[in-house]
Amino acid sequence: MTNIGDYQLGGKIGKGGFAEVYSGTDTRTGERVAIKRLERSSFNPDEQIKREIQAFRKLDHQGVVGYKDHFITPRYVYICMELVSGGELYDYLEKATKFEEERARGYFRQLIEAVEYCHAVGLCHRDLKLENVLVAANGRLKITDFGFSKNMTRAAPKTVVGTALYVAPEVVLNNGEGYDGKAADTWSLGIILYLLTVGRFPFNRGHVGGVGPGMNSRQQDRFRTDNFRAPAHLSPPLVELLRQVLVADPGHRATIEQIKQHPWYTEDGRIPAAPAPIVTPSKAARSVSVEDSSASPAVAWDVLDSPKGDFEQPEEADEPQGFDGFGSDSDDEDDWSGCDVRNQPAGLLDQFSDALRFR
Predict the structure, then answer these.
(1) Residues 170-194 pLDDT 10s
(2) Catalytic residue list contains 127
(3) Phi, then psi, of 116 in degrees rounded to 5
């Protein structure tokens, strides 16, 4: 058995472009946990990992995976967190192809409340997608992966990051001029709502991986549209809400506060929206630490010896790559087969990994 600090590592339960996730056990309490292992490299620098930990450990909400501890060895960083045993929301949708509106509404309300909480403490997520939403044993959704999260209390985000089929247009089109992180997250929530109720993406961006800086005008043009098809099975109130959220101009996009008052969200008032989260001044102040370590205790960075055995020996893997364009000049707006979860091969999940994401 391999131990990292007070945690015993078990088998691998997930893998992405920059990280692997293992099951684990807290040897002090016997509690089962998940342990994310990130390789320290030029593609995944220490400062980026520190910012992820600083964001993650300040969040305390039932809709967010809980942070427990972290450990550093010469080769890796291990982040210990709440174990969410139900898998990804993506897998549930892939099996169902699409959800009835009642079920989709329940999921969407949970996501809205969790994201609203993150915004209240000064963080935008910037990579909201089905693969970053986990399902607990009791059916509750929990958001994970704060590697791209940004503290909004000091400056607006500027970096081009995220996943092409979920990212807001302004993230790609603003060319480093800054954008509203809350509005960008809201767009991604709209994409998720469309996926849950339709079973495919509303826009064909021509690419399923990550976005990054250096995109040419032809590539950027794919992100300018906000005109999507509304299948006949969607109720008029849902279509109305989607058309208020999936608006390319963030200044005209519905806010979370407005979404929570929409008749579809409240089922014509029968299910009142939860009140906005109340964040104490101390919690809001601590959130500044995401990118300003002087505002709160810095992330501990004591390097441990590597565990015994070959656990930390590098595995054979493809070299992580940066954004490589969309790979095709074809722009057939009528070809939606590549954006439909019902037509995807079993390995689609890997295509949506963070292997192409820019830091």
Answers:
(1) 999 987 789 999 999 999 999 999 9
(2) yes
(3) -60, -40
In a domain, 334, yes or no: no
Note if the pTM is more than 0.90: no
Q: Which residues contact 46 (CB under 8 A, 6 or more apart)?
A: 40, 77, 301
State the Cα–Cα distance between residues 295 and 153, nearest whole angstrom. 12
- Does residue 185 fall inside a structural domain? yes
List pLDDT tens digits, range 210-238.
Answer: 887 877 788 888 898 899 999 999 999 99
Q: What is the pLDDT of residue 15?
A: 84
Q: Domain range spanning residue 180?
A: 89-278+348-356
How many domains does the chain fold into? Answer: 1
Query: Shortest CA distance to 205 belongs to which of 339, 40, 318?
Result: 339
Q: Which residue has the tokens 């969309």?
A: 326
- Model confidence over 276-291: pLDDT tens digits? 988 765 444 333 333 3
Q: Pick the catalytic residue: 69, 127, 145, 180?
A: 127
Q: Do residues 79 and 67 make contact, with C-beta atoms less than 8 angstroms apart?
A: yes
Tokens found for residue 286: 């601590």
φ/ψ of residue 11, rounded to 5: -80, 160
